[in-house]
Amino acid sequence: MHYPLTIRDFLDRAVHVYPDRTAVVDEPDQPAAPLEGVTYRRLGELARAQAARLDELGVPEGGRVAVVSQNSARLMTSFFGVSGWGRVLVPINFRLTRPEIEYIVGHSGAEVVYADPSCAAVLDGLDVKHKFVLGEDDALFRPDAEPRPWAAPDEAATATINYTSGTTARPKGVQLTHRNLWLNATTFAMHASVSEREVYLHTLPMFHANGWGMPYGVTGLGGRHIVLRQVDGAEILRRVAEHGVTLMCAAPAVVNAVLDAVTTWEGEIPGRDRVRIICAGAPPPTRTIERILTELGWEFLQIYGLTETSPLLTINRDRDEWAGLTPGDKARKLSRAGVPGLGVRLEVDVDGEVLAASNHNLDGYWEQPAETAAAQAGNWFHTGDGGHIDDEGYLVISDRKKDVIISGGENVSSIEVEDALTGHPGVREVAVIGTPDDKWGELVTGLVVADEGVTAEELIAHCRTRLAGFKCPKRIEFVESLPRTATGKLQKFKLREPYWAGHERQVH
Prior knowledge:
This protein is α/β, with parallel strands linked by helices. The protein has 14 helices and 25 strands. Strands 2-1-10-9-11-12-13-14-15 form a 9-stranded mixed sheet, with helices on both faces. A 4-stranded parallel sheet has the order 4-3-5-6, with helices on both faces. Helix 2 (40-57) packs across helix 3. It is globular, with a radius of gyration of 22 Å. The N and C termini lie far apart (47 Å).
């Protein structure tokens, strides 16, 4: 017998085993009234009521439902209330500009859009059948009706479409199936030792690669979710103390915010010998890892992956063989991307590109067959990252072959930023690269050939009219010319060299 793996499995188990256990502690400081008393029984009821409302609206199985929201219990409910009954969730980065959100909604063909009250203005410009403001429209739920069962649950069906910046100016919609998400969540939970006693702090945006799968994995094992809407180092420490947090996931910039907050924290650092913090997006400096181990007393884990891989490919975690190492030596070992997760195979091709094969790999890019074929050539997913596997079998990421910058854990397409900069009438040539930065990992940096009198402030302000804030260049340098090949192609590796001199790898 074959039983399909679907993300409803995680919620159904939690409702069955832990019905009266607190499931979600919603963000108390938000424009909508927080959801109170969300036990797993209640979370199941809310998901069913949301599915019943989508039935009433006529959204079919396979229909797309978009959500533009910061972290909230309502967004988390949608992971199950939408996909759990055969529809497709499209979580959208709330930091994007109105045109960017309009493109994603239109490209995905979403029939319903939910927006956090802080993002409600974007609904006005959307050509979509049904629009709701989370926490303000009671019509979000239909509690007096039972949702129609998913006619034929299929683990190969698309569960989510996650839009990610890539090597083109337009984001691509990554189709992840129920099987992709189920296997990623269970494998990740196993490697991270998630248990029923987990208290998980959502320091990672839920929209970002579906919270890396933690909304599913922690739910299936009956852990408690603590929703955090706005990243703040001191606030993270306060919630660790208040709720007994044991686990969180974060980009390097979040780690730095916590370490900065330690300098003014009064009293004992909360979570010592209890908290595990999982980092990804870019390898933080060895010194940062050492500070986590010594100043915070938290366990540090690093993973590597992409939205297209659901995301888990590798994991790096302390091991018994390292027991006698100093914190500095241990930090150096932990700075590597890690070893393959269970069921993951990695290779590095002759050009130095990291290739991955796993059941977590995307089904395809939504309505982009050519992009899909290129990314999956030879039955491997081509990551676009350069690296090598060291003598101990650990993957080390050394550079990025794609024109993608990772700043503060967010992917930024350098081509998209270049398009915005060249829209300024005083710009003649431009190249956008990532340069090392201790806080953000990589800084979006524009190297510009411009007319006399054009200022950096002017160009950054121009970009802010076209791009989300995290995509805008933080640094502009004016140059007389840009190096090109005989065919006119930019030689970005030459532009990056002086900024990365002295670094072992071209990512940070």
